[in-house]
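If you are new to this repository, start here. Below is one unmodified record pulled from the training split, so you can see the exact layout before writing a loader.
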Amino acid sequence: MNFKQVEAFRAVMMTRSMTTAAGLLHTSQPNVSRWIALLEKTLGFVLFQRVGTRIIPTPEAEAFYTDVERAFIGLESLNDSASSIRRRGTGLLRVGAVASITQCVLPDAMRLFRRKFSDIPVVVNTGGSDVVAKWLATGVCDIGFCSLHTDLPGLHYERINTAHGAGIVPAAHPLAAKALLTPADFHDENFISLPAGSFNRAAIDRYFPDDARILSIETPYATTICTMVSKGLGISIVNPVVPRALAIPNLREIPFSEKVEFHSYAVTSDHHPVNTLARRMAECVRETFTALDMPATPG
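And here is the target side for that same chain:
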């Protein structure tokens, strides 16, 4: 395969139209069709099915597109870096992080970072721990922040925070008056869960062997869980860093009696030297975690 074929595939996936993709690439529709056909021949599977006048990506195309997007993120970062070097004589900082850190920790960490590096461009990409690890291993990012180790070689993990899971309930909920929640308190309560099969979900579920919770909603993001709890849709157990950072009204954080640990790591690659910018960002993230790792305010 060559770059033009992959670029044409990406454009068609983004627009769902050969004609519109051709316009984006400043070429003709027959050229796009030919590049797609050559790419399919190289890959050995069909990328698009025609349904009337529409083209529908195959499951294989969707899977391939995920890796293509990761590659283009790297290319776009290189373009940004080159532009920054032309303007300032220095590069940019590329950060990869899981959603909870991107949404709840990085905003304050960025404020700290800006005190020393006020004019350095920063690119933040969000993905799961496995995706962040791949970004570090392939040089897409300079520093990563994740919640789990992976088995990819050449990566170094430094634990920067450990938080103990806390219960969250609406402020008007009867359980809001309690100083400590036990597994029994969750019986017959609508429970908003992390995804089935995830590591943190398993760490919570092990304290409910004879599960009497009502598992009503499942979502991958603790930020979404906190918002839903504040709307009265259920109760949950989350990393307390999230509700403390969000400071959502009508949400009460209560310690949980059992030990559920949420770890956060800074990730670097042995193949890519850690520069001054990446080290400073790691320090700022650690400082932000420390500021959030305080007892919840009663009430």
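Two things worth knowing about this chain: Residues 186 and 213 are 6 Å apart (CA to CA). The chain is about 45% helix and 20% strand.
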